[in-house]
Amino acid sequence: VLVLAACSGGGLVAYADSQSDQPQGPKKKKVVVLGTGWGGTTFLRNLDSKLYDVQVISPRNYFAFTPLLPSVTCGTVEPRSVVEPIRRILEKKGGDFKFWEAECFKIDPAKKKIHCRSNAGTNFDGNGEFLVDYDYLVVAVGARSNTFNTPGVEENCHFLKEVEDAQKIRRSVMDCFEKASLPYLNEEERKKNLHFVIVGGGPTGVEFAAELHDFVTEDLSKLYPSVQHLVKISLIEAADHILTMFDKRITNFAEDKFGRNGIDVKTGYKVVKVAKDAITMQNPAAGDVAVPYGMAVWSTGIGTRPFIVDFMKQIGQANRRVLATDEWLRVRECDDVYAVGDCATINQRRVMEDISEIFRVADKDKSGTLTVKEIQDILEDIYVRYPQVKLYMKSKQMNGIADLIRTGNGDTEKESVELSIEEFKKALSLVDSQVKNLPATAQVAAQQGQYLAKCFNKMEYAEENPEGPIRIRGEGRHRFLPFRYRHLGQFAPLGGEQTAAQLPGDWVSIGHSSQWLWYSVYATKQISWRTRALVISDWGRRFIFGRDSSG
Ligand code: FAD
Ligand code: MG
Ligand code: MG
Ligand code: MG
Ligand code: MG
User: Fold this and answer.
1) 165 and 295: one domain?
2) Rounded to whole angstroms, how far apart are CA atoms 222 and 224?
3) Any ligand 1 atom below 6 A from CB of 325
4) Structurally, how many domains does the chain consist of?
5) Residues near 243 by beta carbon (within 8 Å), at least 6 away in sequence
6) Which end of the chain is more exposed for a tag (fewer CB within 10 A), N or C?
7) 359 and 287 in one domain?
8) Nearest ligand for residue 132 CA
9) Do residues 363 and 272 share a domain?
10) Of all protein residues, whose CA lies closest to atom 32 belonging to ligand 1?
11) Do 425 and 499 belong to one domain?
12) Is residue 296 situated within a structural domain?
């Protein structure tokens, strides 16, 4: 219900009050969720909706299955098949949910309010703005595309982040082919129109290049026989290789395959300017090169949304690039605000900050020294709080003392070795170099959403039972285990019904069998039976009839 309230500036501002129409009972805490992407939706689906009064705010009233967006760009999968209305997801869950289609443009952590704006406009002020109170705020707004301030990108390139982007790319590809086929063009102009440039050799850029290549060779070559030999696809990457986040074997395979397919992979080139009809890139050896193009897709890097930058300034995180949370996904220096997914990173606690505290807790007999046995006894607890220690213990570049801690298990002679605090520090001195930021993936966002929902579901219990399983920390007792990411592997579809898969334990598989694994995983991961049926029927339709080329 919208009611009006006087805001501090004296003017009237609309207020979204979701409780005024509810029967009076014990008042539930208000949870406000920003965003209906991977993080927000997974949080909502796992939240016990009886416990809270939940309001969801997002400029899009649907969840989008982003891993299939590259398939939407070429009509392999229809846009409708990769989205699920958020109201349908919430309705299925039942409980107290409200959804407002609007975007948050300011967070006010001091007053625990957020400022929202609907693009529908017209309320009494005519500006579509309203305020929402929260007890707990879950920020899951994702990231924006990053142009790194490269001139002309915003105006001339397509991005590939949203469903609309994928639809626009699809129309643009068809436009390029139709333009190139017009009777009054010379060869040069036709070539220009059929030069497709992809900037960024990460998973999205690579998958799009592969999709486009398949679309051109499997479908468009039959429909545009007179121009198909003029088509060129270029993939530009500033680093030395594409798919750098994958195993070397996958990178090599992808580069070779693209080479055979005639996709021009330009590594070591940095795009410095995008004009209306030429794209300029830089290479230490070649200098500046300007190439004419028909369509360009910018798929390199993500950045922080402006209102999050503003929020970071308010809470003393102005010197950071990305919003920082602790390992419990609580925004640092800000009570009752949580963040999941691409909009935040976990600021992993360093062992060295807490080393004296760890030493003190481990030294059960208060002797002022630690035996190897004493360290081993709390090692599991340390692993939970500081996952970098576990990574370090598995790595090969350990120093002698750390090696002793690892290997001395059950060996009474080794176990009784005494370490001073200085030696203990030295043993763990390299541990913090193992701290890694989690990647900006749906997998991370979804696991974080799920984790946070579980914490919310147990919040009341935890408040009544403040003792938790964690004993080592530098900042008081915590009631929940910190968030831990479980990497389940990742795919890189490379076109021609071939996919590279990298599963945990560095298990790599490339080829047609992985493509089938990809189909089955992505069918399984669908958010509803409806989208699952749609996606599978799109795939079937494509196998039988090919992709649709109208647009
Ligand atoms: P998003 O899913 O981006 O959700 C953000 C939500 O916030 C959206 O609903 C948005 O509308 C909303 N929002 C934005 N601004 C505001 C505002 N001001 N106020 C309120 N709401 C707002 N990851 C994988 O693991 N595997 C893949 O195969 C994969 N493929 C990808 C392919 C493409 C083309 C893209 C773009 C991404 C892919 N990813 C993949 C990455 C994955 O999509 C992201 O990591 C994931 O979406 C992050 O989830 P999120 O909830 O943080 O953000
Ligand atoms: Mg989200
Ligand atoms: Mg999403
Ligand atoms: Mg993140
Ligand atoms: Mg001791």
Assistant:
1) yes
2) 6
3) no
4) 2
5) 201, 202, 203, 206, 250, 251, 254, 492
6) N
7) no
8) 1
9) no
10) 67
11) no
12) yes
**Do residues 295 and 197 both lie within one domain?**
yes
Q: How close is the Cα of 201 to the center of ligand 5, in Å?
A: 53
**Distance from Cα 370 to the centre of ligand 5, integer Å:** 4
pLDDT along the chain (551 residues), means of 10: 36 54 70 98 94 96 96 94 95 88 97 92 73 97 96 97 97 97 96 98 97 95 95 97 95 96 97 97 95 97 96 96 94 95 95 90 88 86 86 74 75 84 88 90 97 89 54 48 90 94 90 92 92 93 88 69
Residue 183 placed within a domain: yes
pLDDT score at 154: 96
What pLDDT shows up at residue 467?
47
* Cβ neighbours, 10 Å, residue 225: 9
Length of the chain: 551
- Ligand 1 atom showing the smallest separation from residue 143 Cα: 3
70 Cβ closer than 6 Å to some ligand 1 atom: yes
Q: Kindly list the distances between the CA atom of residue 276 and the CA atoms of 98, 135, 189, 229, 266, in Å, as whole numbers in the listed order.
A: 44, 48, 14, 24, 21
Q: Could you say which of 434, 463, 480 is where a domain stops?
A: 434
Which helix (DSSP H) or strand (DSSP E) does residue 490 occupy? strand 490-495
ipTM for the complex?
0.97
Domain final residue pick, 391, 411, 434: 434
Which range of residues forms the domain containing residue 427?
351-434
Closest CA to 419 of 372, 381, 380: 372
- The beta strand positions in 327-414, using DSSP E, are 337-339, 344-346, 370-371
Instruction: Look at residue 149 in the predicted model and tell me its pLDDT.
Output: 95
pLDDT at 86: 96
Token duo for residue 101: 């289609």
CA gap 334, 112 in Å, rounded: 10
Beta-bridged to residue 107, according to DSSP, are 114
pLDDT the model gives residue 403: 77
| Ligand 1 lined by 337 (C-beta under 6 Å) | no
Residue nearest to atom 14 of ligand 1 (CA): 141
According to the model, what pLDDT value does residue 291 have?
A: 97
Residues 176 and 284 in one domain: yes
Q: Indicate which CATH number applies to the domain containing 203.
A: 3.50.50.100
Give the pair of three-digit tokens for residue 319: 């010197």
* Alpha-carbon distances of 5 from 17, 121, 128, 132, 184, rounded to whole Å: 10, 18, 15, 11, 63
Which among 167, 248, 266 has a CA at the least distance from the CA of 209? 266
The residue whose C-alpha atom lies closest to atom 41 belonging to ligand 1 is: 441
Asked if the structure places residue 500 within a domain, the reply is yes
CB of 72 closer than 6 angstroms to any ligand 1 atom? no
Spatial neighbors of 64 by CB under 8 A, at least 6 apart, are 37, 82, 83, 162, 163
Residue 58 lies in a domain: no
Q: Which CATH number is 368's domain given? A: 1.10.238
Question: 157 and 298 share a domain?
Answer: yes
CB of 39 sitting under 6 A from ligand 1: yes
Nearest to 179 by CA among 69, 295, 90, 273: 295
Indicate if 382 and 497 belong to the same structural domain. no
Cβ-contact 325, 345 below 8 angstroms: yes
Q: Under DSSP, is residue 164 helix (H, G, I), strand (E, B) or coil?
A: helix
Residue 129 and residue 117 in contact, taking contact as beta carbons nearer than 8 Å: yes
